[in-house]
Amino acid sequence: MVDLASVARAVVVSSLGVHRGERVWVHGWDHAVDLMSQLAMECGRAGAEVLLTVEPEELWLHSLLSSPLESLDKLSRYQSSLLEETDVYIFTLGPRRPVPWQRIPPDRRKAASIWLDTRYDNSGFAAEWSAVAKRRGVRMLGVEATLATPERAEDMGLDYERWREAVYNGCLEDPVTILARAKKLSGRLAGDENVHVTTPQGTALTFRLDRRALDLSEALATKDKANEGIITFLPAGSIEVTIDEDSANGTLVFDQPILTPDGMMVRLNAQVDAGRVTSFSVAGPRKPFRKYLEADDNAGRLSFFGVGLNSKMRFGFAQDDKVLGGVVMGFGDNENKGGRIRANGKGWWGALSKATVRIGNETVMRIGLLGA
Q: Do 306 and 282 contact (CB within 8 A), yes or no?
């Protein structure tokens, strides 16, 4: 059972630390009004001033299809004025139904702003929003759990109730606990040592770290993040780093199913040589992964490594990168993580369970247990 009041408390108190006198703007899709109401009430209990606005899915799609293109790619005066007066911005992810991209002309697709964070959202709207938010130091948090809807579950082949429960419960993980787990790994991950990953399912992969910046998802919407225009998303709980892109060699066996737009891949087995996928097999259709590899010359290059840190998350619900003790291996474009691979935005990742990870001479994870 999902406790929306507890989720709202985690957002407002644990992640954002909203305090008396702050001005909070809560914005979200029409399918998430129940959660938005709880968020507004929790902000009120903290003594904040609250504005709540709702995005109807039908209106959003109509605007994307028929409004003047130039109006879609920029902030309106109303939005800019509101953001100028805002200390904290909370929003829900959506819409309820999968976006019908086939109905949207290509020149309008890039104007659709959903994530708002310029690390993932290349729209002109997101760029203008980020410029104002950075200048004002607005703390921002997006609730990604609201993507768990019956319509999206059917489209992805997931059990809706189990998915919803998994991601909303994941929002309740304590940020302090996530940080403590991250600290056990951060020193080693920031270095330049060799990493060896093995699993009972057959993974045996070695690659090298290269003193890259760490990408930490710890559920805290801090002032430092606000000054950089970075949005915190819930559920959170992962630490990732790009790697020496030519260093990986060995075998990867992804025991967790991987959701793709072309269907679910089961038990993907990839051979990696000098950082590139050279061959692969899969239990089922080969088309999804083959199509991905053919999309760009760099799509098959191993690009990042990560570890999940959230004990309340579960495998199988589109958030495998955050499951405590899970290992993520990513391919393709990694520029938004500070890497050197440009693959025209093509990126892909999968998860391993029960991994043993050795960094240098230290075993930091044994059969999925951190510090074991």
A: no
Which tokens go with 145?
């759990």
Bridge partners (DSSP) of residue 29 are: 55
Exposed, middle or buried, 134 (CB in 10 Å: 0-12/13-18/19+)? middle
Check if the beta carbon of residue 370 is closer than 8 Å to that of residue 181: yes
Name 196's bridge partners: 206, 358
Of the pLDDT bands very low, low, confident and very high (cuts 50, 70, 90), residue 277 is very high
For residue 13, pLDDT beyond 80: yes
Cα separation, 123 vs 129, whole angstroms: 10
Cα 53 from Cα 26, distance rounded (Å): 6
- What's the rounded Cα separation, in Å, for the pair 286 and 309? 31
DSSP of 214-263, one letter per residue?
EEEE-S---HHHHHHTPPEEES--EEEEE--TT--EEEEEE-S-EEETTE
pLDDT of residue 341: 86
Q: How confident is the model at residue 372 (pLDDT cuts 50, 70, 90)?
A: low
Q: Using alpha carbons, select from 15, 19, 11 the residue that is nearest to residue 45.
A: 19
CA proximity to 58, closest of 4, 97, 114: 97
Task: Say which range, 132-141, 195-204, 256-265, 288-297, has the weakest mean pLDDT.
Answer: 256-265
Q: What are the tens digits of pLDDT across the range 247-272? A: 999 999 999 998 877 778 899 999 99
> What phi and psi values does residue 49 have, to the nearest 5 degrees?
-90, 135
CB 134 within 8 A of CB 229: yes
**Start-end ranges of CATH 3.40.1830.10 in the chain?**
4-170
pLDDT of 286 reads: 87
Q: Classify domain 4-170 at the CATH topology level.
A: Thermophilic metalloprotease-like (3.40.1830)
Q: C-alpha distances in angstroms, 89 versus 26, 109, 239?
A: 6, 25, 24
Please, how many CA atoms are within 13 Å of residue 179, restricted to the half-sphere of its CB? 7
**Cα gap 256→265, rounded to integer Å:** 9
Helix, strand or coil for residue 27? strand
